[in-house]
Design brief:
This protein has 350 residues and is of the alpha/beta class. Helix content is 17%, strand content 29%. The protein is built from six helices and 38 strands. Strand 4, helix 3 and strand 5 form a beta-alpha-beta unit. The longest helix has 15 residues. The radius of gyration is 26 Å and the shape is flat.
Length: 350
């Protein structure tokens, strides 16, 4: 792809092209980091890149660069280099869009593999691809343009919207509903039984889990992640929420729009999470906790009580992030502090 073609495409995107300079108009074949870029590669710098990384612009062998538009240091450099460049409001978004141009998704061949097992009264929309050894239960619906890869199991009475991508060996249990343009990665389980057991004098009594799971439009679920159905009612994942690998979402949880949850997050049953919430890796959320909109929790945070909207929290139990940073800075000093306290107590006891 010629560089000028990329410029024109980015003008139509979300990255905000401010200025560009086409000197050689190179053919762009691949994308790479600044350190490893070579001829016919395109690379980028984020708005928050460190000075050391910015300095690599001078020596990078990339044929073209996507750069922040409001960085005086970078603008001064680009005046001196011969590399083609674009200045953007959001260069990281531009890089994501450019990757889509250079590496378009492969469209699976339309049709149904002969080894697929399809139940009664199954409705399959046009241009649906169903891979080898897929099982689809009775009364299930799959919307137009969806792709179901090999080994997927879809139980009865599942509703799957249009343009969904369901990767190999994932499982979607009965009654589950997927909106449009969802991505379910390999080995994920949607709608498995919630962890419901009642203690009795004779041991644990299993609570039947007869509820359902609902994924709204554009939800993505990572490999090995699980979203449990409740005993009654619904587990709901809001539109455009992104879930990383190995995330556990318990029965009856409600998650809002545009949330992001990194690997190994665990959310206990009945928790309610607002819109645009970010949970970093290994965050734990207790049952029935309410988390407001736009909350950010850093890695390994333990949320055991309600969090107001807009808060940034860390630690276990969760406290404001700035307080956590001050506390953690003093952890390594605790032995000396304890020693000083003992010495003071010894003096005072004389």
């Amino acid at each position: 792809m010629q560089f000028n073609e990329i410029v024109e495409k980015l003008k139509q995107g979300q990255s905000g092209v401010i200025d560009f300079n086409i000197k050689k108009n190179p053919v762009i074949l691949t994308a790479a980091s600044l350190e490893k870029a070579k001829e016919n590669d395109i690379s980028f710098l984020d708005n928050h890149s460190q000075l050391k990384l910015k300095s690599l612009i001078k020596t990078s062998k990339a044929s073209a660069l996507l750069l922040p538009a409001y960085d005086d240091f970078i603008i001064e450099i680009v005046k001196q280099i011969s590399v083609d460049w674009i200045l953007l409001k959001e260069p990281k978004i531009a890089f994501a869009e450019t990757l889509e141009f250079l590496y378009p998704s492969e469209i699976e061949k339309e049709g149904i593999h002969k080894s697929a097992v399809i139940g009664k009264n199954v409705k399959i929309g046009p241009e649906v691809s169903i891979g080898a050894n897929v099982y689809i239960g009775d009364n299930t619906e799959i919307g137009a343009g969806s792709i179901v890869h090999a080994g997927v199991v879809i139980y009865k009475e599942v509703r799957i919207g249009a343009k969904n991508l369901i990767h190999a060996n994932s499982v979607i249990h009965s009654g589950s509903t997927l909106g449009d343009e969802c991505v379910i990665n390999a080995n994920a389980v949607i709608g498995g039984e919630g962890f419901g057991f009642v203690p009795t004098s004779k041991g644990w009594k299993k609570m039947p889990q007869v509820g359902i799971v609902i994924l709204k439009n554009k939800v993505e679920v990572g490999s090995g992640s699980t979203i449990d159905r409740p005993s009654v009612g619904e587990t709901i994942i809001g539109e455009d929420t992104k879930i990383d690998n190995l995330v556990q979402i318990g029965h009856g949880v409600t998650i809002g729009k545009g949330c992001a949850m990194a690997a190994q997050v665990g959310i206990a049953g009945g928790a309610q999470i607002g819109d645009l919430v970010i949970l970093a890796g290994q965050v734990g959320v207790s049952n029935r906790v309410k988390i407001g909109d736009r909350v950010i929790a850093s890695s390994k945070t333990g949320i055991v009580s309600n969090i107001e909207s807009g808060k940034v929290v860390s630690g276990f139990p969760a406290i404001p992030n700035k307080l956590w940073l001050r506390c953690s800075a003093n952890f390594k000093k605790l032995p000396e502090i304890a020693k000083a306290i003992r010495q003071l107590n010894s003096r005072n006891s004389r």
